Amino acid sequence: MDSMTFVLFGATGDLAKRKIYPALFNLYLNQKLPKSFSVIGVGRGESSDDEFQSRVIDSLHTFSRHLLNDKSKKEEFVKAFRYCQLDVTDTAGYKKLLELVQQNEKEKNMAENRMFYLSVTPEFFDVIAMNIKDSGLGSTNGWKRLIIEKPFGHDLKSAQELNEKLSKAFEEDEIYRIDHYLGKPMVQNLEALTFANPVLQSLWNNRFIANVQITANEIVGVEERAGYYDKAGAIRDMVQNHMLQLLMMTAMHVPKRISENEIRNEKRKVMESLRPLQRDTVGVHVVRGQYEHGEISGEPVVAYGEEPGVEASSQNDTFVAARLWIDNSFWDGVPFYIRTGKRMAEKATKIVIEFKNPLKDLYNSEMEQVEPNLLTININPNEGVSLQLNSKNPINGEMEPITVDFSASKQDVPEAYELLLFDALVGDSTFFTHWNEVELSWNWVEPILEAFKENRVPLHSYSSGSMGPEAAHQLLIEDGYKWW
Ligand code: BG6
């Protein structure tokens, strides 16, 4: 691929500034962008090309992981940026955008490869997609692709409706749905870890694994997003997408070939085997919570109901934990636990595999207790893998757990957006969410949404800065386990 036009809707927004421009710049520095590329920023406000370019340079100063002092590189990079003022609902305005794109392609002798990135609120996804089609922007001699980011609907029905509309303008294999968790280097590494290591591969089943625990805890609260979050809750914001993606990536089995389609196929199989929940028994397997006031790093923080934009009586979930079962021959009998919450004691995204411990009765004296073997995949804030084994301390002869550790060096790790944008540029959709996965995930989550809405599941409160409601601990204690 030697040329591409990147049309960014929402070019003056927060995501563009924090993530997209720095990611494009890093790709540029690593010579991973096509030789000839243009970025057409689309925004509602007025701006000249020069103003737009300096806005981009500012974002690189603040957010790029390459603290490059060499100004000339940045200036060279932003020369490829043009701005187009457009109200995305104004159908006639797209003609101007098409002219700009075409004129630019002509001037630079570029092929008509067009990437449309919709960094706008989801209510505009279908409007923009249809306008791209109707204006002729989507009729190219090269390829066209659409990148969108969650939320893809707010329940099964709305997701289906959205998909139906998008599919009138783009084919499924032209749609790149970002789940930024799939761009995290350690999540991408799961595939290598489990498929490329015969030692782990042979243990990756219910004969050896006792349970799997997937955690995505955050310290931050609702921040300034009450308008969205109070309607979404942790169930829509984290579980339907990120948590279920982590589950699919962990539980999928080695395909016959390592290819985009085969991997997605394996992921789909996991979702299809996920035991459905019944609305009236959701509470047996799902715990929901909402944060109370408390302390974070020694500072007092307010309860969810006192956050700006949230009604004191809000029943929204800021924490969800659940026990899931995958009914297939590999995972039969192995509980998968997920938990995610805001205002927790620490920021930690990780997957812990607890192995069965059949030897524990061999060593059951006080001196010689054996802990289960644990494989921990740390995703965020630190990237790494560790394996907990039992070993005798050579000095005092006591049995103790030791940890074999690998941690990546922080500064070299590329950002999720960098990896994902590159994949989209080269047309590799392995780490994007296929429509099947979106649909199956909503389908699985649906009884939980209903049970929450009908208040069939108690809403536990937990102190800010804690490890979540006691009920979430009980969920594992019932099965003889604990959260690691
Ligand atoms: C987003 C959610 O998708 O993921 C946020 O909307 C959440 O509520 C964020 O804070 C967490 O992402 P990360 O990469 O910080 O774990």
From TrEMBL:
Keyword Secreted attached: no
Active site residues according to the UniProt entry: 242 (proton acceptor)
Catalytic reaction list: D-glucose 6-phosphate + NADP(+) = 6-phospho-D-glucono-1,5-lactone + NADPH + H(+)
Pfam family, one: G6PD_C
GO molecular function term, any single one: glucose-6-phosphate dehydrogenase activity
InterPro entries the record matches: G6P_DH (IPR001282), G6P_DH_C (IPR022675), G6P_DH_NAD-bd (IPR022674), NAD(P)-bd_dom_sf (IPR036291)
Positions of substrate binding: 180, 184, 218, 237, 342, 347
Keywords: Carbohydrate metabolism, Glucose metabolism, NADP, Oxidoreductase
Enzyme Commission numbers on file: 1.1.1.49
Annotated positions binding NADP(+): 10-17, 44, 87-88, 150
Pathway terms, separated by semicolons: Carbohydrate degradation; pentose phosphate pathway; D-ribulose 5-phosphate from D-glucose 6-phosphate (oxidative stage): step 1/3
Glucose-6-phosphate dehydrogenase NAD-binding domain residues: 7-189
Enzyme class at the top of the EC tree: oxidoreductase
Domain Glucose-6-phosphate dehydrogenase C-terminal, first and last residues per copy: 192-484
Entry-linked HAMAP family: G6PD
Protein family membership: Belongs to the glucose-6-phosphate dehydrogenase family.
Protein's job: Catalyzes the oxidation of glucose 6-phosphate to 6-phosphogluconolactone.
Protein name listed in UniProt: Glucose-6-phosphate 1-dehydrogenase
Gene source species: Rossellomorea pakistanensis
Primary gene name: zwf
